[in-house]
Amino acid sequence: MAMHCGCAFASQPVSPRILFEFKPSASKLRASSAQFPKTQIRINPSDDILINSLDKSPEIRVSLPSHVNSITSTSNPFVKHCLKLRQSSSYRHVHGSVLVVGAIPIREVCIFQENKLGIATEIECLLLHEEAQIPQGLENLSIRIVRVSSLVMKKLSGVQSTESVEAIALMRIPNSFVDLKDDQDIVRGCSKWFPSAHRVLVLDSIQDPGNLGTLIRSAMAFNWDGAFLLPGCCDPFNDKALRASRGASFQLPIVSGNWNHLKLLEHEFQMKLFAGHPSTTTQKPKPVSRLSQEFAQSVAGKPLCLILGSEGNGLSDQSRKVCELVSIPMAGEFESLNVSVAGGIFLFMLQSCSGF
After folding, report:
1. Quick check: 8 and 342 in contact, CB under 8 A?
2. By C-alpha distance, which of 326, 327, 307 is closest to 232?
3. Sheet harboring 145-148: ordered strands across?
4. pLDDT value at 46 more than 80
5. Which among 168, 167, 234, 170 is positioned nearest to 205, based on CA atoms?
6. 213 inside domain
7. Where is the tRNA/rRNA methyltransferase SpoU type domain (predicted)?
8. Are 160 and 298 in a shared domain?
């Protein structure tokens, strides 16, 4: 059997002007702890400088004036800000904000954060269609609600039909996401990356946001402790990834780093590294274990990382070199499985409480 994916299944303003906050350029930006200083200026929304600022200087944070409770124009500066949050990964992480589209994922995030973590959901603003009711489960939340037109809802949601999109939330990127910028972050240690590190899903250049979101959702469903994103992965807060994860990106601890960070995690917790890989396509002679109940039982008590490779190129050379390769036996004569399908099988079979 084989897989193309490389795995065997494998502001309260004093006027109606837009409020901006500037972040000093010397400060290091971290999505996991985005803090914004109190330096403020006010600019007339009609000025061209507003658009230029949004396009050229993402270190500006935009707040909607407190008196605004309805937006009908797609040219509104706040709408343009939200749109860029959806479209640009760097813009999202500089601001530490993300758009979550749809009542179901918004509700799931709120329930998880309040019931499991005991914290209030960090919703900066809830955008509702002008004719929609407050979604069930969100009625009692103390959050700001702004009504928007169908055109604005369509623009921000990124979908052709907005009939099923009744709500969009502007939310803070959760503290459970850690972006390790460089090797200097190693000195911080890895004990705080994940509350537990018994089962960690490692994604190696997964570029399709639908696959990445689905894998994060599956990891959450099968009680894995977190996900580690190696270079080349798409943003887990991409709108398509969020749609596929159904809010799991806000629930599962996620770390974005490089191989040096992963090696530190491996050493700190004495983890075994497994990688999903086709049994017949190894570039160099190397044993490939078969996934089975017996295999799952043999590693049940051991901390492990499961590495899944990219959709087009498979596992990186580094992954093939350092990992024990594992394949999924297939009766059908198929060359590959989608990485999210294959990953779901792995995550189920190797979960901590598999019961095998």
Report:
1. yes
2. 307
3. 70-71, 145-148, 123-129, 167-172, 97-101
4. no
5. 234
6. yes
7. 200-348
8. no
